[in-house]
Amino acid sequence: IALWEKNTYLERRLLSKWVGILPIRDRVEAIKESGDIADAFDYAFKGLEENGGDSLMYRQFRELADDYANRAEFSTDFINWEGYREIGESINLKYRLSDGFVLTPSVKAAKEVSYDAGTIVNVPYRHYNAGLTLEKRLGNCGFKASAGATGSLSDNPYFSVEPDCNINASTDLRFFYGEHVEDDDSLFLYLGGLKRELRVSASESINGRTTLSAYASQDWFFSQDDETLGSGNALYAELSYKFYAGDPDVALRSFAESNRYYENGNTGDIAGLSPFQAFDTLPLSYSLVGAGFIIGDGYKGKMEKTWRPFLNADIFYQAGSGVSYD
Questions:
Q1: pLDDT in tens, 145-159
Q2: What beta strand segments (E) does the chain contain?
């Protein structure tokens, strides 16, 4: 009951009196929730040494490593978007400081490979994002703050803050505020735009397999020379059901989304990217409903001993456009 309710006071009482008789996995979880991460690692490693075939013990150790171990991540991606093609590389270094703080320096740099002059012109040779993220958890709540510089047509500082809290054992609430953060709602915004974003999101675990999640956001868009381009808002809701929680996990989901954009006619330095005098910097408003399935979602971004498959597949209906898939 103490573990299910995430009651750290009861967990500490259990550990102080009966740590030796608790099942190994409960012991690791209780020690982790009480804040003693080093001891949680020791007991998890001991559990794997004693029973290397315990898949649940391995999963618990893996989650500890993912959440609390220092790590380096490197990725390379290729983008082909409306005739624009680029190669990008990202580096993230996650480092745990004292008192539960986590510091993550990150750098992303992308280089244009080619583009179709009928769609976009004067493409910047490269664009980048470099910054630092600091995270801290305090009991059932956490806080994340990021700051750095981003640029392609112009260089700009950015920052964001993201507090979150587990209201109870089944409900999570999260807020986000960002200034001059990158945006990919359209190709013009991706290469030459920034946004101010205010978002609130929540998720409710209805039972061990069914989760309802939603968010609402308000956005203000800018060119990189600080011209106001317009505003927008978004609503999203998703209901997912995990009908197999093993390896790989398999889930079905249904979702609905609405995005509204309000352009004011300004273009700023984005005007130099378009081959036309009259063009839209913001995308058209849209609404859609859809459903899909997810395989191996728990693998993504996790430490694994072997290659693991994952797949997302959705089919959706968008008002004005018809049926499509992703």
A1: 999 999 899 999 999
A2: 71-81, 84-96, 101-115, 126-138, 141-151, 155-166, 171-181, 193-205, 210-223, 228-244, 250-263, 286-295, 311-318, 322-325
Output the six-digit token pair for 84. 């624009």
Which single residue is written with the structure tokens 């009480």? Answer: 34
Three-state SS at 60 = helix
Three-class SS state of 25? helix
DSSP state of 225: T
pLDDT band at 78 (very low <50, low <70, confident <90, very high): very high
Mind listing the pLDDT tens digit for each residue in 232-288? Answer: 999 999 999 988 766 678 899 999 999 999 999 999 999 999 999 889 999 999 999
Q: In whole angstroms, give the CA distance from residue 187 to residue 99.
A: 42
Q: Which of 47, 119, 34, 37 is nearest to 70 (CA)?
A: 37
Distance CA(222)–CA(203), nearest Å, equals 30
- CA-based nearest residue to 189, from 159, 156, 229: 229
For residue 104, give both structure tokens: 């993550």
What residues have CB less than 8 Å from 179, skipping those under 6 apart?
158, 159, 160, 196
